[in-house]
Amino acid sequence: MSNLRSTISRAGLGAPAGLLAAFTSLAAAELVAALVRPAAGPVTVVGGAVIDRTPAAVKDFAIRTFGESDKVVLQLGILALLALFAIVLGVLALRHRRLGAAGVLVFGIVGAAAALGRPDSAGAGDALPSLAGSVAGAFVLYVLAGKATSAGSPSGDDGTGGGWSRRGFLTAAAVTAGAATGAGVLGRALSGQRGQGAVASRTSVVLPPPASPAPVVPAGAQLKVAGIGPFTTPSGDFYRVDTALVVPKVDAGTWRLRIHGKGVTRPRTYTLEDLLARPLIERDITLTCVSNEVGGPYIGNARWLGVRLADLLAECGVKPPSKGGKADQLVARSVDGMTLGSPVEDVMDGRDAILAVGMNGEPLPFDHGFPVRMLVPGLYGYVSACKWITDIELTTFDTYDPYWVKRKWARKAPIKTQSRIDTPKPFARPASGTVMVAGVAWAQRRGITRVEVRIDEGPWQDADLAAQDTVDTWRQWSFPWKATPGGHTITVRATDGTGQTQTEQRTRTVPDGASGWHSVFVTLP
Questions:
Q1: Contact 175/44 with Cβ under 8 angstroms?
Q2: What is the largest CA-CA distance in the chain?
Q3: Backbone phi, then psi, for 391, in 5-degree steps?
Q4: What's the Rg (C-alpha) of the chain?
Q5: For residue 338, what is the enclosing H or E element?
Q6: pTM: predicted TM-score of the whole model, two decimal places
């Protein structure tokens, strides 16, 4: 019985020893990453590697299920798995200290490999945080496992035997936890200081008035209907869908944009000051994410300020394919290594494709691409809306597949005609009488000319359209429904400026955006 109690006691100490080793490893890595490059932290690089290798259908499920919290869920999942393995290694180390410590080093090697394999890797230095953290964690596990073994032995139970006592183990564990916490806090503080320069640079940016202001939004573009959102989406409410686990904090003073590649006769590198000194245009543009399900939330309308991208390309000698240009694809690269491919013809066909520096009257928020992002009206974001852009390469679709195309998404993705019911909400129980049904419809580059509503399997009826701003923005609509008691299904469909009515055929988001009619079920007393 004594031996059994001793074994159980040791096992009970192995788990906290493993967890403390993992905590120490992460804290030490955080500190080293703050000194090397914050984006090289092990959780960030391993999380990025997981995202890169996740099938498109799984990513789509994560976005659909967790929304903009998908990255938080991923990081928590990584930490949970790390904790589980740490417990296993801690218990293993009670019998095989070197083997347990070696297991921690393996995790460091995995993290280092993930860091070096990232598209935005800055070189060998990115491996240091994971390696340094694993060495610290392995040392802690080796020492604590030895103390735990002695503390769990009969001679150590009362603290008077020849081995390390339980009190000694707890003291060592407390010291380790304190030191690791201090290292983690210091690392976070140093990382925060490194980001302060970028924050200060954004604060100092003064946006000049546009040479071409946006047209005044018609007074009737915003419906006065409870439950429908604002015509212009506030920046803080604008959707965010990307693969960045840590939002890049780019210093405006050091930011550069390089334009080069096939058919570029005059390669150029631009600073933010260069762009701000040029004639700027201001436009209302509705952006849509290809991961937006039918009736989904990943769409927003904002007022953007920026430089015409076609002008910059022409300045560099670029011609569209229709005029003899050698390149048919523009590959935009972000500071975090993301690549998006846009048709050169679309970028240079006269639409307001821009390199945006402002959003809703202010410099771009960091979440939305500060200091500069790209926008191409009429294309889903994954082929046009590169945030934190730093490089534009002209190439061909046959030569290069960008990030999402490698993951089975379509090379070209014009936005589909869609409509959404914003009120009443699904499964609502509105009062009897006239129920105002309202929402938005969009078909960027084509505009919306008609919206129809159907109650159950009845006839389609025309909704009232709000005033249209431009063909590049969404359009609100409303329908006063004389509701009758019982359960009812409300369905909506839209027709764009070409006369094409959105299809009933329901498809998922992969490979080029969802389609189908949006409907909600409501019950009236």
A1: no
A2: 89
A3: -155, 135
A4: 28
A5: none
A6: 0.88
d(CA 25, CA 141): 10
- Look up residue 307 and give its two tokens: 């430089």
Nearest to 518 by CA among 499, 497, 498, 504: 504
Using the structure block, give the residue that is written with the tokens 């000694």.
Answer: 168
For residue 330, give the nearest of 354, 314, 313, 315 by alpha carbon. 313
Report the alpha-carbon distance of residue 168 to residue 46 in Å, rounded: 35
Q: Tokens 């307001």 label which residue? A: 352
pLDDT tens-digit map of 433-457: 999 999 999 999 999 999 999 999 9
CA 291 distance to own-chain centroid: 12
Q: What is the pLDDT of residues 486-518, one digit of tens each?
A: 999 999 999 999 999 999 999 999 999 999 999
The count of residues in the chain is 525
CA atoms within 13 A on the CB side of 505: 5
Place of tokens 């080029």: 512
Alpha helices, DSSP H, located in 301-357 = 309-315, 344-347
> What is the three-class DSSP state of 62?
helix
Contact 377, 387 (CB under 8 A): no
- The letter for the amino acid at 379 is L
Contact yes or no for 238/302 (Cβ under 8 A): yes
Tell me how far CA of residue 401 lies from CA of 60, 135, 377, 381, 508, in angstroms.
20, 38, 21, 16, 22
Tokens of 249: 């904090």
Backbone angles phi, psi at 212, to 5 degrees: -130, 90
Average pLDDT, the chain: 92
Distance between CA atoms of 83 and 500, rounded to whole angstroms? Answer: 54
β 354-359/362-363 pair status: antiparallel
Quick: pLDDT tens for 412-433. 999 999 999 999 999 999 998 9
Which residues lie closer than 8 Å to 361 by C-beta, 6 or more apart? Answer: 207, 303
> For residues 169 and 149, is the Cβ–Cβ distance under 8 A?
no
Helix (H, G, I), strand (E, B) or coil at 224: coil
Using one digit for the tens of pLDDT, what is the confidence trace for 26-61? Answer: 999 999 999 999 889 998 999 888 888 888 778 778
Q: Which residues contact 127 (CB under 8 A, 6 or more apart)?
A: 40, 111, 112, 113, 115, 116
The rounded Cα 338 to chain-centroid distance in angstroms is 11
Of 311, 317, 518, residue with least CA distance to 423: 518
